Amino acid sequence: MHALPQDHTGVRIARLRRERHLTQQALSSLSGVPYHTLTKVEQGRLAATPHVVACCARAMRVEVSTITGQPYRDDLRADELDVLIAPIREALDVYDLGADPDVTPRTIRELREQSEALCAAVRAGEIKRAASEVAGLIEETTTAAHTLGSSDGWLVLASLYRTSYDVATKLGFADLAQLSLARLDWASHRAGDAVFGGAYQYFRALTYLREGRFRTGQRLVDLGLRTIEQADPSRERDVVTGQLHLGGAVMAGRAHREDQAMGHLSEAQRIAGRTGESPTVLWMAFGGTNVEVHRVAVLAELDKYDKAVEAAADLAIPADWPKSRTSHHWAEVARAQMWTGRLEASFESLIKARRVAPQQAKYHPMVRDTYASLEAAHRRLPESFLSYGSWLTSQM
């Protein structure tokens, strides 16, 4: 009995292919995805990599989000997370209405502390808490920022818009994530802060990365690097610069441009030598650990799964590193291990991803697709494996 029937990216690729009257061989030829890879992905025997998804999306002339979409709306509804989305949309919509006369905001210092606490909650994998609190804080801070008209207020508001972007991204609401970014750009311009301007271009580039539009994404990385140069020298500027290089590395890796990817990694590594571990600077988790975590991701994007697994084996994640990033790392390791036939190790990595940040892992497409592939590879599954699948579909 399958715990996740018809619940993987390969099924959606197959459905779209049939709707376009394409055979598997025809889609393979159009997309450049090897036939044996495509067939295994559609069967769920291999988890679809972002590169495979992007190639299939281009071949079928659909958005990547049409393939990945938000396939877990029923689960979100069961976990009472879907009802938290509408208030966030409403809070984002009042950005230009000025101060609300019915709102009496706290001081900017208090609002900044609350904003930082939500950033920490997201990094700890506490998505439900962040989703439930961010809308009210955005409305309160919108009034405070308009009333004061100072850069401090706009920066706190920009930070809250970033949190709404994080929540929307992790729950798969791409349109809400894009709206959040538009508001972040609006607030950072009013603050006159080039560091936040560079960060905005980084997050914007990630949206194009997820959509498989690597050329535009790389241009945004380059724009972000030019924008951040306008900021005064600071640790914050170095962190955003380094993170932009890491984003560029994954972008180039997913486009299978190895030299460019490794060049970005080398530059990020050089900057990390200057900043040290900076997990709470703009909550980007930049530093030597993040460089090596991205190295694992880039090797996997380049289809060098054996090397990715080797790099992961040599990497020690600090205990105080953000749980959301740690969980994502273990999901990527699980996928690489599955592709190299290390099925038991892959399942162990999925367990680690859940243990570190259960709310995030439950809604992570890579976790679900990898689980489905492992399930398809087993004829008889141990009880613990089936229990994991039951957890993925259960109410939290």
Explain what the structure shows.
- Helices cover about 75% and strands about 0% of the residues.
- The two termini are about 20 Å apart.
- The relative contact order is 0.10.
- Among the domains are: about 70 residues, 434 Repressor (Amino-terminal Domain) (Orthogonal Bundle), CATH 1.10.260.40; about 70 residues, no CATH class.
- With about 400 residues, the protein is an all-alpha fold.
Concise synopsis of the structure shown:
With 396 residues, this protein is mainly alpha-helical.
How is the secondary structure organized here?
Elements: H1 9-19, H2 24-31, H3 35-43, H4 50-60, H5 64-68, H6 73-78, H7 85-93, H8 108-123, H9 127-148, H10 151-171, H11 174-191, H12 194-210, H13 214-228, H14 235-254, H15 258-275, H16 288-301, H17 305-313, H18 323-339, H19 343-356, H20 358-362, H21 365-377, H22 383-392
- Termini separation comes to 22 Å
SS class: mainly alpha
Overall pLDDT confidence: 89
- The best one-word shape is globular
Which band does the percent of strand residues land in?
A: under 5%
Radius of gyration: 21 Å
Secondary structure tally: strands = 0
Describe the largest sheet: none
Query: Which residue ranges are poorly predicted, with pLDDT under 50 across at least 5 consecutive positions?
Result: 1-5
In DSSP terms (H or I, runs of 4 or more residues), the helix count works out at 22
* Fraction of helical residues: over 70%
N-to-C order of helices and strands: HHHHHHHHHHHHHHHHHHHHHH
